[in-house]
Amino acid sequence: MKISYNWLKQFLQVQLEVEKTGELLTDLGLEVEGIQKVESIKGSLEGVVVGEVLTCEKHPNADKLKVTTVNLGGEAPVKIVCGAPNVDAGQKVPVATIGTKLYDEKGEEFKIKKGKIRGEESHGMICAEDELGLGKGHDGIMVLDESLEPGTPCAKVFNIEIDHVFEIGLTPNRADAMSHYGVARDLRAGLIQQGTNLELISPSVSDFHVDERVLKIDIEVSDKDLIPRYEGITITDIEIKDSPEWIQNRLKAIGITPKNNVVDITNYVLHELGQPLHAFDASKIKGNKVVVKTLEEGTKFTTLDDVERELSSEDIMICDVDDNPLCIAGVLGGTESGVSERTTSIFLESAYFNPVSIRKTAKRHGLNTDASFRFERGIDINMTKYALKRAALLIEEYAGGKLSSDVLDFYPEKVEDFQVFLSFENAYRIIGQEIPKETIKNILASLDIKINSATEAGLGLTIPSYRVDVQREADIIEEILRVYGYNNIEFSHKLNTSISFDKNNNVKIENIVANYLTSLSFNETMANSLTKPEYVELSENINEDNNVEMLNPLSNDLKVMRQSLLFSGLESVSYNLNRKQNSLKFFEFGKTYHNYEKGYQEDKHLTLFVTGNRIKESWKVSSEVSDFFYLKGVVTSLLSRLGINSLKTSPIKSDVFSEGIVLSLGKIKLVELGVVKRNILKNFSIKQEVLFTDFNWENVLKVISSKNTKVSDLPKFPSVKRDLALLIDNKVEFKEVYNLAFQSERKLLKDVDLFDVYEGEKLPEGKKSYAVSFILQDENKTLQDKQIDKIMQKLQQSFEKNLDAELR
To answer: How many CB atoms lie within 10 A of CB 759?
Structure first.
């Protein structure tokens, strides 16, 4: 939000330096993110002075140029070549002297230099109004008032205004500060705390009166809960023209382009007082009646941005008697009823709309306007009439309008101010320091919080209507603290804290996993838990009925909480692939959210995404595409790192995989992994294979917590390695060889490994060759050859008997 310092000074005659004011606003909770210098004319016409044309003669070498001598208030006149047709002797003109910087329409700078034009020296430039940024005219040079003295800076002649604009990062709860008046009100409270008590000047509306009751437009409101207050007035005999310069300067300073006097005044009052207003062309309101209601679902309406929109049955609409929509209430007007150059009478609206309804409408249509920004955060319901009168008086003054009706005010149920009791004891406890009671009372008074009763225990308070965020005792304490100053609170250098002990230390386990994966070139991602509701259609395993829906979603793309980490991960994969990052390895710790009949449930997961090459290709390493077996190796080695082995493999039943497996420990399912189906990848515009792993992290932690860690001494005696080359059937898996070996020798056999597989023409049909190594070790003595041979013979016999194996 942009706040003009000059505008603030209309309400508060503050004399602080700009930087000091910014610091105070930040201390008050209105964080100033930046301060920008703004000039009504870029460059402030520095170096441009009033010149008197003494002589004007035709250029000897150019028909359209003239050579002039100009008095700039110095000792001697200067020669300037000018191409304007209206330049003449005796004129007072603006002159850009040597070294002056001027700016074109795009803001690009050009510098005035001494030079020769067609052989004649020129020491400056006599300017047209567009060259100075004072207008768009370029028919000739500007001719100034004859009474001006040569050498007078043009910045004084044209009243150039220099302003400073605060960029405030306004938090959603501070609806009271969404205007210059609101910021000035807060600044005053801060200054009082520093010992400077300034009067808060509010614009007067005492001159408001109806000139002649010649045009009345009735109002009808259908739902008082959606529209608690609605006011309007008609103004006739309006002349649409440019706004006065001071209004234009105020709007330009905060980044608003002036349009015409009526629209500019509604914008001005919006940023002045925080109350959105809307002006309708009265001649386009059929039946002289405004009806505030909702319309049928799918009704077409073209807004001011020339976009035709389909309305929701929940959108509040401003209509006429034929249910003809004129405006999306609180968000954006329509093309048909807006103020144009032909407008001569208006209906001026000031209202309070339900904040939740306006927020939903704005997000539904993808609109974010200055009006919706304020309505959806909650404006002051008691400001509507004051702001309406303020704008009406300005339109009367600067558009020649006449107030032609009384103010029509729909306000069926008056909103009462909040009543809160503040306990001094609670305030001291939460703040952490005892603040004098008189200081507390002064701070509350500076915030317009009325003290109804005072006792030794606390204060009975009435909160003004514009502080919609202050409704509890804790809110009052926060107000006291921010005005008193967080920096004024003393704190101890000693920190007391309790030490918690987590037997399983889940965070430590996650760090072990993260470090392991990053060592394999994986990158950690953190996706939004909010996602698109349409993703449930991509998998039958996800039920739409189990969605956890947002009551007030930020957008349709963030409407539900995710039931799977797959789709948010694929969004990240797609984003990177679109930016030519084709080899990716991602992992994410995150939760899924479900709404079951028994209640809401959150489940922790670890997911891996792999696509593209395993490692970066170089001169000594050829590219190798990541495949299912690579991913399985990563998964099993990761589980082994956590001490989880002896896994059972079973086929996948999930419909998101074209092929995959489930890894379990007993009956506990730990991991699903496989290749994501192409029809799912197509929804994310992914054309290359993506591998996905989903760890049920709760089950992983459960398994880890149930496992006991065994620690043993390093063996003192050496191990022995022996190999066997076995000719076996193609159907036999290494797993069978592995298990049979340990069944045959449980005591001395430490490890079994497959280091070669051969299938070729020299082998019998249906056969393959396994080269298997065996590690033998006795922890109490050195193994003898006789003992080793006996074990190997026992293994060989076991393989021959149970697997029909032959020794090659």
So the answer is: 9
Q: What was the pLDDT predicted at 501?
A: 57
CB atoms under 10 Å from CB of 715, counted, come to 12
Q: Which of 134, 80, 150, 144 is nearest to 102 (CA)?
A: 134
Q: Give residue 107's pLDDT.
A: 74
Task: Give the integer Cα–Cα distance in Å for 315 and 360.
Answer: 8
Half-sphere exposure of 792 (CA within 13 A, CB side): 21
Phi and psi dihedrals of 623, rounded to 5? -70, 140
How far apart (Å, rounded) are the C-alpha atoms in residues 285 and 217? 8
Could you tell me which of 175, 347, 337 has the C-alpha nearest to residue 277? 347
The predicted structure's pLDDT at residue 298? 92
Q: What is the DSSP string of 112-178?
A: ---EEETTEEE-SEE--HHHHTS-S--SS---B-TTSPTT-BHHHHTT--EEEEEEE---TT-GGGS
Rounded to an integer, what distance in angstroms lies between the CA atom of residue 103 and that of residue 45? 10
Q: Which long-range contacts (CB under 8 A, 24 or more apart) does 150-153 make?
A: 150/49, 150/50, 150/51, 150/52, 150/71, 150/72, 150/73, 150/92, 151/49, 151/50, 151/72, 151/73, 151/74, 152/49, 152/50, 152/73, 153/45, 153/48, 153/49, 153/50
* Continuous segment of H or E residues that includes residue 566: helix 566-577
Per-residue pLDDT, 135: 78
Dihedral sign for Cα 715, 721, 724, 728, please.
positive
> Could you tell me which of 723, 480, 695, 666 has the C-alpha nearest to residue 587?
695
Per-residue buried b or exposed e for 12-26, using 16+ beta carbons within 10 Å of the residue's own CB = bebeeeeeebbebbe
AA letter at 339: V
- Pinpoint the alpha helices (H) of 160-244: 180-193
C-alpha distances out from residue 696 to 572, 588, 675, 703, 741, Å: 21, 12, 18, 11, 32
DSSP code for 625: B
DSSP secondary structure letter of residue 546: G
The pLDDT assigned to 707 comes to: 63
Contacts of 597 (CB under 8 A, 6+ apart): none
Is residue 569 a contact partner of residue 525, using CB atoms and an 8 Å limit?
yes
Inter-residue contact 194 to 16 (CB < 8 Å): no
List of the chain residues with pLDDT < 70: 499-504, 706-710
Contact 509, 642 (CB under 8 A): yes
Measured in Å, how far apart are the chain's first and last C-alpha atoms? Answer: 83
Taking each helix axis as running N to C, give the angle between helix 180-193 and helix 18-27, from 0 to 180 degrees, rounded to the nearest 10: 90
Residue in the structure block whose two tokens are 């072990």: 512
Distance (Å) of CA 47 to CA 50, 51, 344: 10, 12, 43
Q: Give dist(CA 571, CA 690) in Å, integer.
A: 12
Angle at 486 between CA 483 and CA 490, to 5 degrees: 130
pLDDT at residue 331 in the model: 94
Copy the structure tokens of residue 216.
């009345």
Distance CA 19, CA 36 (A): 11
Could you list the beta-strand ranges (E) of 295-353: 300-302, 308-310, 316-319, 325-328, 332-333, 346-352
Ramachandran area for residue 599 (φ above 0: left; ψ -120 to 50: alpha; else beta): left
Which pLDDT value is given to residue 502? 56
Count of residues in the chain: 808
Element containing residue 679 per DSSP (H, E): helix 678-682
Structural contact between residues 639 and 670, judged by C-beta atoms closer than 8 angstroms: yes
Contact between 776 and 791 (Cβ < 8 Å)? yes
The structure tokens listed for 99 are: 């070294």
SS3 (DSSP) at 550: coil
Whole-angstrom distance, CA of residue 278 vs CA of residue 9? 26
Helix (H, G, I), strand (E, B) or coil at 653: coil
CA separation for the pair 576, 542 (Å, rounded): 26
